[in-house]
Amino acid sequence: MEYSLAALDGISPSTPFTDSINAEFSLSAEEYVLYQNRAPLPKEYGAFAVQVFQFAQQKDPIALKIIQQQVEWVSQYLDALIAKGAQKIVLVGGVSEAILSYLPERFLTYFCPPQGDAMAGAILMAKAQIGRKAI
After folding, report:
1. Could you say which DSSP state residue 116 is in?
2. Most buried residue among 60, 100, 121, 126 by CB atoms closer than 10 A?
3. Rounded CA separation 36/20 (Å)
4. Could you give the C-alpha distances from 87 to 70, 108, 110, 112, in angstroms and in order?
């Protein structure tokens, strides 16, 4: 949204991606403000993430820039997990599958499919924590 608003304001160049986002806000900075003021849910922001990847497939420069920035953040977290001894890593979340192909190859050997859903993982972590306190 930041890049789209900047394009709308003439601060940065527009692309098909920014034009699409701006069209959703009726080409109005005021609509952006109204959207932010109503405290949108994470899933509402997630709809924009889907568009980022759709436009990246069309080589949109802003969409690709956004993905590259996210790859840098995700890579930092993955490096931290590996440095702490992680041997298997599960990517979860709305864009986890979409971002996989953009991540550096050095991470591919660490990725594995989930063995359950988020609730199952939370229960396992709670049991492990309880087990530690019981010893």
Report:
1. S
2. 60
3. 18
4. 22, 11, 6, 10
